[in-house]
């Protein structure tokens, strides 16, 4: 699917280049770039007021720059890095294109000449924090404030303290926005920049992929802010093709600067700060407000009677009170009335009422299960019973079990007696036959 989209984008780019060759050159734009009559150039400069529009870029915010159709703003992050950033500056200078660079404070401190080159070339310089941490969405306000302020201080130091060369523009690293950070930037009059579409040049992709992503996403939106990075070799390789395709497709470059007391903002309307504002002929998503009507006659109509709709008032609710349908006079307070629904009423007993007898309690008695008396035959041996403590004895020869009944009784916890108190002692001689108990 991706390869198919890339082939389609390639055909689209080739068609745009062919169409551009057949179009006449723009004399005004060509004249503004000496030595390159085919240069893309910069069509106009847009002056914005950060206080009126503190957040821009539809990737994260509802508003973006007030661009016309087929207008593009080029932005570059993370520089300066001499080897790549200098090549980016040379490519833009060849086509007389102005862009906006968001500088990292640590890079500006290491390579201050790169920041001064941006100023000397006429580009807009914003800031991109001090150390480019990808944690702005988790930082406290104090931590974010330190990153923002140090980045501005390092960039100003690289510019030799030239505050006029530094614009109040800031892009959060990784676009990891947070309300507290945006609030702090707005309190300082700094405009937070997102983007309208990226080219994914920070990923490990080829320059051809960077080119096709930039052009296909621009074609989908028609205009907007393009996010690039001036420290990537793949961006250096893709940028000439991007500029060529922009010119072939009829796109125009817009240079954005901040308003100053000596440079007023560009007049715009709130509708223009939307990427694709809805025309007045298109229905809105929200419901319109209900208008306040003015009635010429406020005469109240009479309430219809139940008889007017063909119902019998007497049979409408049997056994209930009639519904009060009379109108109240002006300033009259309605009084509570009984519910029209039927209520429970007492029923008079007839004279021939038959009284049934009350059931006896014995009908509900549950008889307990009785246990029959246990009759036991206990053979004993006299000689063993006389010299041993009471215990269970097993006679192997006779294969019978006997209990010494002459010993004192030892109750067992939880046991129940199975014989009456008059249990008799067995015979002393072993030869006598056992006799039954309880007799």
What can you see in these coordinates?
The protein has 439 residues and is an alpha/beta fold. The chain has 11 helices and 12 strands. Strands 1, 3, 4, 5, 8, 9 and 10 form a 7-stranded parallel β-sheet that branches. Strands 2-7-6 form a 3-stranded parallel β-sheet. It has a two-stranded antiparallel ribbon with strand order 11-12. Helix 7 (179-187) links the parallel strand 6 and strand 7 (191-193). Helix 3 (82-94) packs parallel to helix 9 and helix 8 (207-221) packs across helix 9. The model is unreliable at 1-31, 316-320 and 392-398 (pLDDT under 50).
Write the layout of secondary structure elements.
Layout: H1 2-22, H2 27-31, E1 44-48, E2 55-56, E3 71-77, H3 82-94, E4 100-103, H4 105-110, H5 112-120, E5 124-127, H6 141-158, E6 169-170, H7 179-187, E7 191-193, E8 197-198, H8 207-221, E9 224-229, H9 233-248, E10 252-258, H10 313-316, H11 382-387, E11 392-395, E12 400-403
Parallel strand pairs: 1-10, 2-7, 3-4, 3-9, 3-10, 4-5, 6-7, 8-9
Antiparallel strand pairs: 11-12
């Amino acid at each position: 699917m991706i390869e198919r989209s890339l082939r389609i984008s390639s055909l689209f780019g080739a068609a745009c280049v062919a169409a551009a060759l057949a179009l006449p050159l723009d004399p005004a734009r060509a004249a503004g770039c000496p030595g390159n009559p085919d240069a893309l150039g910069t069509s106009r400069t847009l002056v914005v007021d950060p206080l009126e529009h503190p957040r821009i870029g539809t990737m994260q915010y509802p508003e973006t720059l007030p661009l016309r159709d087929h207008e593009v703003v080029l932005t570059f992050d993370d520089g300066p890095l001499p080897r790549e950033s200098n090549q980016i500056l040379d490519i833009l200078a060849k086509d007389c294109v102005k862009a906006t660079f968001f500088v990292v404070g640590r890079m500006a401190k290491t390579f201050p000449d790169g920041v001064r080159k941006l100023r000397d070339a006429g580009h807009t310089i914003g800031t991109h924090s001090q150390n480019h941490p990808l944690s702005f969405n988790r930082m406290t306000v104090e931590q974010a404030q330190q990153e923002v302020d140090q980045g501005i201080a390092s960039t100003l130091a690289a510019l030799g303290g030239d505050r006029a060369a530094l614009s109040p523009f800031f892009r959060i690293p990784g676009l990891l926005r947070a309300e507290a950070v945006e609030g702090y930037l707005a309190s300082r009059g700094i405009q937070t920049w997102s983007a309208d579409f990226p080219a994914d040049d920070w990923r490990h992709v080829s320059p051809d992929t960077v080119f096709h992503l930039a052009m296909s996403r621009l074609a989908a939106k028609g205009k907007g802010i393009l996010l690039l990075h001036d420290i990537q070799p793949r961006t250096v390789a893709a940028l000439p093709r991007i500029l060529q395709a922009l010119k072939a497709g009829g796109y125009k470059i817009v240079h954005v600067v901040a308003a100053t007391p000596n440079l007023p903002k560009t007049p715009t309307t709130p509708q223009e700060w939307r990427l694709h504002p809805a025309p007045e002929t298109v229905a809105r998503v929200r419901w319109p407000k209900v208008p306040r009507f003015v009635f010429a006659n406020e005469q109240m109509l009479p309430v219809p009677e139940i008889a007017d709709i063909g119902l019998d008032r007497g049979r409408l609710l049997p056994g209930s009170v009639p519904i009060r349908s009379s109108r109240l006079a002006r300033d009259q307070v309605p009084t509570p009335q009984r519910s029209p629904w039927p209520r429970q009423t007492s029923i008079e007993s007839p004279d021939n009422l038959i009284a049934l007898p009350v059931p006896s309690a014995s009908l509900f008695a549950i008889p307990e299960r009785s246990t029959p008396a246990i009759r036991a035959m206990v053979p004993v041996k006299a000689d063993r019973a006389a010299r041993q403590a009471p215990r269970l004895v097993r006679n192997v020869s006779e294969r019978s079990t006997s209990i010494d009944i002459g010993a004192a009784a030892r109750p067992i916890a939880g046991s129940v007696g199975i014989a009456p108190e008059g249990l008799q002692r067995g015979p002393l001689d072993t030869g006598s036959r056992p006799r039954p108990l309880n007799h």
